[in-house]
Amino acid sequence: MGGHANAGYHPLTTETVVQVVAPLNHFADVNQLEIKEIGDGNLNYVFHVVEPATGKSLIVKQALPYAKVVGESWPLTLDRARIESEALRRAAEYVPALVPKVHHTDERLACTVMEDLSDHVILRKGLIQGQVYPKLAEHIATFLAQTLFHTSDFFLSPMDKKEQVRAFINPELCKITEDLVFTDPFFNHETNDFPEALQSSVDALWNDLELKRETAKLKHAFLTRAEALVHGDLHTGSIFVTTDSTKVIDPEFAYYGPIAFDIGQFFANLALNYLSHFHHSPDPQQRRTFQKYLLEVIEETWAQFKEQFTQLWQTKGQDVYMRVAGVEDDFFERLLEDTIGFAGCEVIRRTIGLAHVADLDSISDEETQLRLKDKALILGSVLIKQRRQLTRITHLSETIRGVAHA
Ligand SMILES: Nc1ncnc2c1ncn2[C@@H]1O[C@H](COP(=O)(O)OP(=O)(O)O)[C@@H](O)[C@H]1O
Ligand SMILES: CSC[C@H]1O[C@H](OP(=O)(O)O)[C@H](O)[C@@H]1O
C-alpha cells in the first residue's frame, strides 16, 4: 500500500545525498560536491550532484512516500523507484544509447543514481521554443520498437513473459493513470482543473455518451491487455534531447500494458505542442514550418517503428502464428487504432484533468489559451470516436491539422 516507507527510509536532503554517492567511488573528493534539488516533476526529488574540480556529476532521484505535487495527503508507493530503475536497466539491454545509465539502485532509500543528462534539454521545453530535433523520430521509433518487441510475447517465452509481468506489477501508479487519464476528465470529478470559461465545452464532453462508451473500451484495454513492458508515461517531459541525442527518462509508471499506450502518449503531446504554436510562433511562416515538422515526427516515428518492429517480427518472432499470413497486418491495424484512441485520452486529460502541459498553460493570453484548449477537447474527442476510420498514420496528421486550423 502507498505511503509505507521501507525500514531505514528517510527523505534525502542536499546534506545527506552524499551518503548515497560516497560508496560509489565516482568522485575524487565527496567533501567538495555541489548538490541542488532540481526536480520539477509531479512526484519525486531529483538531486543534481556535481564535483566542480573534475567536472564529474550524477543524478540521484528519490521517491517520496507521497505524490510531491499534492503532498502527504496522497500517499504513494516507494516501489515506483524499483520499477523505474528496473525498467531503465531493461531498456538498456536493447537501447543503451537511448536511456540514462543507471549506476546504482538503493531500494531502502527508494532512490536511483543515474547519469547526469544536464547537457540535454527536456523535449517539451525545446519544442515550445520551436527547436527542431532531426533524430527525434528515428530515436523514439527505435526506443519503442526495441523495448516493446523484446518485452512482449512476440519475443519472450510464455514463462519468461509471465515472470516479467510479475516483476512489473505496478498497481498504484496504474491507478493514477486509470483515474487521471481515463476516468476523471470524462466526469465531473474534483481532480479536474480547467478555466471556468471552458465549462460549456467540458459539459458537452461529459454529456457525450458515444465518447464515454469509446473511452471505456480504451480504459478496459489499459486495465487488461498485458502486451509488453510499456514506459507508461511517455510524454515530452519524459524525453531529454540534443540535436543528435535522445534519452528517455522517468519510467516509474512502467507495467505490462498495451503497446499502443506509449505511442499514443507521445503523439498526443506532439499534437498539443502543435496547437500551442498558434501562440508560441507568432510568425506565420515559422509556425507553418514548425507545425509541419511536428506532423512529420508523428508520421516518421510511426513509419520507422513499424519498419523496425516488422524486422524484429520476421527475424526474432517466436510464436508460430507470427508466420501466418495476415496476422502481422491485423496487429498493426489494431495498433494504430488503439494508438489514436490513447492519444485522444491523453490530449483531453492534459487539457482539463489534474496534470496539464506547459505548452498550453504557459500561454499568457487567456483568450488564445481558451481557444486552443477548446480545439484540444475537439481533437481528443475526434481521435477517440473516429479512431476506427483513421486507418493510416496520415489520417492522424490530417486530423490534427484539420481540427487545429478549423
Ligand atoms: N538523468 C537526469 N539528468 C539531468 N536532469 C534530470 C535527470 N532526470 C531528471 N532530471 C530533471 O529532473 C526533472 C524531473 O525528473 P522526472 O524524472 O521527470 O521526475 P518526476 O518523476 O518527479 O516527474 C526533469 O524534468 C529534469 O529537469
Ligand atoms: C499526481 S501524478 C500526475 C501525473 O504526473 C505524472 O507525470 P510526471 O511524473 O512526468 O510529472 C503522470 O503523467 C501523472 O499522470
From TrEMBL:
<comment type="similarity">
    <text>Belongs to the methylthioribose kinase family.</text>
</comment>
<keyword id="KW-0067">ATP-binding</keyword>
<feature type="binding site">
    <location>
        <position position="44"/>
    </location>
    <ligand>
        <name>ATP</name>
    </ligand>
</feature>
<feature type="domain" description="Aminoglycoside phosphotransferase">
    <location>
        <begin position="34"/>
        <end position="303"/>
    </location>
</feature>
<comment type="function">
    <text>Catalyzes the phosphorylation of methylthioribose into methylthioribose-1-phosphate.</text>
</comment>
<keyword id="KW-0418">Kinase</keyword>
<dbReference type="GO" id="GO:0016301">
    <property type="term" value="F:kinase activity"/>
</dbReference>
<dbReference type="InterPro" id="IPR002575">
    <property type="entry name" value="Aminoglycoside_PTrfase"/>
</dbReference>
<keyword id="KW-0547">Nucleotide-binding</keyword>
<comment type="subunit">
    <text>Homodimer.</text>
</comment>
<comment type="pathway">
    <text>Amino-acid biosynthesis; L-methionine biosynthesis via salvage pathway; S-methyl-5-thio-alpha-D-ribose 1-phosphate from S-methyl-5'-thioadenosine (hydrolase route): step 2/2.</text>
</comment>
<feature type="binding site">
    <location>
        <position position="349"/>
    </location>
    <ligand>
        <name>substrate</name>
    </ligand>
</feature>
<feature type="binding site">
    <location>
        <begin position="115"/>
        <end position="117"/>
    </location>
    <ligand>
        <name>ATP</name>
    </ligand>
</feature>
<dbReference type="InterPro" id="IPR009212">
    <property type="entry name" value="Methylthioribose_kinase"/>
</dbReference>
<feature type="binding site">
    <location>
        <position position="233"/>
    </location>
    <ligand>
        <name>substrate</name>
    </ligand>
</feature>
<dbReference type="InterPro" id="IPR011009">
    <property type="entry name" value="Kinase-like_dom_sf"/>
</dbReference>
<feature type="binding site">
    <location>
        <position position="61"/>
    </location>
    <ligand>
        <name>ATP</name>
    </ligand>
</feature>
<keyword id="KW-0808">Transferase</keyword>
<keyword id="KW-0486">Methionine biosynthesis</keyword>
<feature type="binding site">
    <location>
        <begin position="250"/>
        <end position="252"/>
    </location>
    <ligand>
        <name>ATP</name>
    </ligand>
</feature>
<protein>
    <recommendedName>
        <fullName>Methylthioribose kinase</fullName>
        <ecNumber>2.7.1.100</ecNumber>
    </recommendedName>
</protein>
<dbReference type="Pfam" id="PF01636">
    <property type="entry name" value="APH"/>
</dbReference>
<keyword id="KW-0028">Amino-acid biosynthesis</keyword>
